[in-house]
From TrEMBL:
<keyword id="KW-0067">ATP-binding</keyword>
<dbReference type="InterPro" id="IPR003593">
    <property type="entry name" value="AAA+_ATPase"/>
</dbReference>
<dbReference type="InterPro" id="IPR017871">
    <property type="entry name" value="ABC_transporter-like_CS"/>
</dbReference>
<dbReference type="GO" id="GO:0016887">
    <property type="term" value="F:ATP hydrolysis activity"/>
</dbReference>
<dbReference type="GO" id="GO:0015697">
    <property type="term" value="P:quaternary ammonium group transport"/>
</dbReference>
<keyword id="KW-0406">Ion transport</keyword>
<feature type="domain" description="ABC transporter">
    <location>
        <begin position="6"/>
        <end position="236"/>
    </location>
</feature>
<dbReference type="InterPro" id="IPR013611">
    <property type="entry name" value="Transp-assoc_OB_typ2"/>
</dbReference>
<dbReference type="InterPro" id="IPR027417">
    <property type="entry name" value="P-loop_NTPase"/>
</dbReference>
<keyword id="KW-0410">Iron transport</keyword>
<dbReference type="GO" id="GO:0015408">
    <property type="term" value="F:ABC-type ferric iron transporter activity"/>
</dbReference>
<keyword id="KW-0472">Membrane</keyword>
<dbReference type="GO" id="GO:0005524">
    <property type="term" value="F:ATP binding"/>
</dbReference>
<keyword id="KW-0547">Nucleotide-binding</keyword>
<dbReference type="GO" id="GO:0043190">
    <property type="term" value="C:ATP-binding cassette (ABC) transporter complex"/>
</dbReference>
<dbReference type="InterPro" id="IPR015853">
    <property type="entry name" value="ABC_transpr_FbpC"/>
</dbReference>
<dbReference type="InterPro" id="IPR008995">
    <property type="entry name" value="Mo/tungstate-bd_C_term_dom"/>
</dbReference>
Amino acid sequence: MEPPLLALDDVHSGYNHHTIVHQISFHINPGDICSLLGPSGCGKTTTLRAIAGFESVSQGSIKLADTLLSSPKKSIPPEQRKIGMVFQDYALFPHLTVAKNIAFGLPKQASKAATIETLLKLVNLTGYEERYPHELSGGQQQRVALARALAPAPKLLLMDEPFSNLDVDLRRRLSEEVREILKSQGISAILVTHDQEEAFSFSDKVGVMKDGKLLQWDTPYNLYHEPRSHFVANFIGQGHFIRGNAISPESVATELGELTGNRSYNWVVGTPIEVLLRPDDVIEAPDSPIKAEVVQKVFKGAMTHYHLRLPTGSIVESLIPSHHNYEVGEQIGIKVEADHLVAFSSPTDGNKPSVPL
């Protein structure tokens, strides 16, 4: 079995004797593209900076392949780690041309011109060698920053919210292009972002962080469908929790009827339960006795995204084909169709996840 490219083991890190991240452990394999995702201040950038060598490690270790990069007793300088970095503000030298910006990190060698030519072609900027950063668009500047980071052939690329200064459409297109470039070159990368759509579309694995801790490191699919904590379930995707009570290891009685999953949980009958319902779990059912009031609607072409208020005041969301057009204030018949339940013990019961047996 191939060893991981990068491994963090019980990492504690921060600055000015103040620990920001605690007990961070994960690994990435060669060729993996990953993201650290979470709200502002959760510690994702501190984790990235610790990997890069800009922050010290007070406990645990960081290894790149077989090389120990950081521990309480050892720290390899950032420039010796064979790790590339792409920053939010691009960090290009304004007085240097595109070619010279890319060449900045290269050793003095005869093949430098050939390397620059190859990288320009890779990032689709052939012919821009003699332009200066101020003569480029934001997306072009970010491509130059990527080419410069790739120039020394790093083993790992770190990206700190590199697309956040771009408009939405360009951001999406560029993130797709960068992923294709990295995959084509077999380069592993870690992206820091607070945008879950970006993290999901960009990454093979995503780590969700909160208050300096890594809550779950998993595939985008598993984070959405198999969240391990109430926070991850609520943070990832869209949806709302409704309350109920366990009536069997597989079922919960709720105001939307008895909801049954495809597995057994470790809850006791009668336990207060919260069930997460995504918009795709709540479907239109005109003949259903359960009605909900339209409180908000967003037209999305083939589908309309409805926010619906249940008789108890609880809110759920639903995606309904747009040829059925309901107005705000109108009642809709609904039912739940969920392959499995994303359910947790209610906060009054310790807010502990209900684990499938």
